[in-house]
């Protein structure tokens, strides 16, 4: 098996994908709040729709936070030399 001497090999792909996912989540959240924006004076009339929109916003924020947490965990693994840890199994 070929050994890769580049320690940052696993970081580039992980970082690019994490940034793209977080940007996508922020774009969807911005669209969601743009849709909600004109309705701010009429929040009382939205009723359940407001709860659904806030639920979607919370789910999207949780996805973004999970991606960032996974990226930080990956950075720590690579720093400890566990870059190819999954190949052992």
Can you describe this structure?
The protein is an all-alpha fold and 89 residues long. Helices cover 72% and strands 0% of the residues. It has three helices and no strands. Helix 1 runs antiparallel to helix 3. The relative contact order is 0.16. The model has no long low-confidence stretch (mean pLDDT 76).
Structural class: mainly alpha
Helix share of residues? over 70%
Multimeric status of the protein: single chain
Number of helices: 3
| Distance between the amino and carboxyl termini | 15 Å
Instruction: Tell me the number of strands.
Output: 0
Could you state the order of secondary-structure elements as H and E? HHH
Shape: elongated
Cα gyration radius (Å): 19 Å
Low-confidence stretches: none
- Report mean pLDDT, rounded to a whole number: 76
What is the makeup of the main sheet? none
Measured by DSSP, the beta-strand proportion falls in under 5%
Itemize the secondary structure elements and their pairings.
Elements lengths: L8 H28 L6 H4 L1 H32 L10
Helix pairs in contact: 1-3
Task: Write a concise keyword list for the protein shown above.
single chain; 72% helix; elongated; mainly alpha; 3 helices; 89 residues
């Amino acid at each position: 098996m070929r050994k890769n001497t580049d320690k940052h090999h696993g970081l580039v792909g992980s970082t690019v994908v994490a940034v793209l996912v977080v940007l996508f989540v922020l774009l969807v959240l911005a669209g969601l709040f743009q849709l909600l924006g004109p309705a701010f004076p009429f929040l009382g009339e939205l009723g359940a729709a407001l709860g659904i929109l806030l639920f979607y916003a919370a789910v999207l924020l949780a996805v973004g936070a999970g991606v960032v947490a996974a990226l930080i965990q990956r950075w720590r693994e690579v720093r400890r030399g566990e870059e190819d840890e999954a190949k052992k199994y």
